[in-house]
Amino acid sequence: MTLSGKTIAITGAGRGLGAALAIAAADRHMKPVLLGRNERGLLEIAGLIEARSGRRPDCVICDLADLASVASAVAKLAILAPDLDILVNSGSQWTGGAFEAQTDEQIASVINSTVSGTIALTRRLLPLLSTRPAADIHTVVSMSGLPYARMRGSSVPFVAAKAAQNGFVQALTEELIGSPIRVTSIHPGIIEDVLPTDDTWNEERNASDMLSDRNVVEAILYILDQPANVAIRSLVIERARTEFLS
Fold it and tell me: Where does the chain cross the membrane (predicted)?
């Protein structure tokens, strides 16, 4: 399946991995729609994409921790991208530190953005995706969602939320088998943030170096670019000298 011309909605697209994926998708002649809660961040990434491609992507404010914001974002997406082919659930709030130091507000934000908001957004976009001959729902879960991975700086709420998100992906995969929608996921380890616009994007890394956004973005695009008869349901990606499994 060629990705050129595909419309792809990406949550968390105002920074980090989501932003890197949006820029790389545009470089592949896809039509990204940027979703996120920070308007300034979205507009900055949209400007970078326009400067590289000459095409300015649409931006939609979507706070995954706020279900009203999710509903509003979907209503706008239905107008801006009725030909939506791919949803990438990349947005998620993160918190680190000891469990007893977490506030109720932090816990709620992490759980709501990673679990409730992601599930609600996906459910609301199913009717759009179902109209396409072939579509994808891809979720960036993180190794923190795997039962055998160590915490490595993540908080208890974040690990719990990612475990729930992983369960959501597995259940949705089963429910949508036989439909034109593929459900896939990726579980990256710790990532160094770098954008395709940075000089460091093309730097070769050694075995001891940590993952960069480039490594994960290329893996996501590889998964999405598979032929219609192929589904890479789940992929764990960690640096060669792993920290999560030791």
Answer: none
